[in-house]
Amino acid sequence: MDQWDQIVQHPASRTRAVPGFDADRLRTLRHRAMLTQAELASHAGISRGAVSHLEKGRRQPMVTTLRGLCLALDCELGDLVPNEGTEHDTATSQDEAESYPARAAV
Questions:
Q1: Domain count, the chain
Q2: With a threshold of 0.85, does the pTM exceed it?
Q3: What pLDDT digit, counting tens, does each position of 55-76 carry?
Q4: Which residue range(s) make up the domain with 58?
Q5: Which one in 22, 26, 44, 90 has a CA-CA gap of 20 to 30 Å to 65?
């Protein structure tokens, strides 16, 4: 089982947004891949409207959405969540720590 599978199988992955998501980086990576919002949405398994909301920072992605975006853009988690795995990216509460048990391994 890879690290994404471990994270996606956690119950919180479908109900909690990923903190630290970088909306501007998503747009930059989409442009570099020369994809329209509709094309990225199709590859990531989400709607074009969802891509638009994510790029404008109006919505934070769930883990499953983030995984689809990373696969579609051929990028790593850290490309869209830049603080992932750094010393500054620590859980601020016990609840968050329990919600993302495999975060440090990603």
A1: 1
A2: no
A3: 999 999 988 899 999 999 999 8
A4: 3-78
A5: 90
